[in-house]
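hey can u check if this looks right to u? its 305 residues, i copy pasted from the old doc so theres a chance i mangled smth
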Amino acid sequence: MEIVLANPRGFCAGVERAIAIVERALDRYGAPIYVRHEVVHNRAVVEGLRRKGAVFVESLAEVPDRATVVFSAHGVPPAVKREAEARGLRVFDATCPLVTKVHAEVARSHAAGYAIVMIGHRGHPEVEGTMGQIEGGAFLVEKPEDVARLPIPAGKPVAYVTQTTLSVDDAAAVVAALGERFPAIAGPKRDDICYATQNRQDAVKRLADRCDAVIVVGSANSSNSNRLREVAEKRGARAWLVDDAAAIDPDWLAGCERIGVSAGASAPEQLVHAVVDRLRALGASGPVQMEGIRETVSFPLPKAL
């Protein structure tokens, strides 16, 4: 059995920036540094930062006055920023710049009089942050069937945005349904699904076409990691999402000639190495690296850090 590694995989520029912001804040101001929501959706990353002195909270009510707080990569509504300013909190915003781009699209379209439809997963912090950019919020759709139920009156101009970590194919199906109901619907000038999500899904499609089974390294609450597993399954491969090497069941490997490995955009490369070591211990050879796009995107840190 041969191990084949997807490329690209693992950390994206937005995740690297978010983690660096927390680490730099800890170095400069000392523990504790409060982080609103998990800075990125990966258990190993969060536990590592917690050991260094990061305190993860779901509400600013849990943060002492005058403390230092980091907003997660998923973004926050303006009301949260106003609350932090009113309480004198030192804030570092780790929102991914590609999420910030979607926030700006929402604000511009709303100001121009459009009803805003967001394609995304209910309850995800990125969705909550994006929909909170405008007073009264936006309309959320998760699948094509939701489009018919949108309470938008005829004649109202409509614009849509998407969560940055969706399945490219699933989002396209919803966009098509929106276009059928609202032929004049306005979309973003550039696709909201981020470059890293697109690249990793394309790589997993190539991986699944070559392999009998695919293991995706990523946490269960990671949207982009879940989408990679789904993409592999839709291409006909057996696929599993694992937090770490310990989660691998040897029975998964029965009958495999090639086992593919990828990782979500919030999963560190050392977890991939551990998965490869585990597979080798179970009798696999390799790994073989697939060719893929070389990513060169980087995002600057806040000037104060």
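The radius of gyration is 20 Å.
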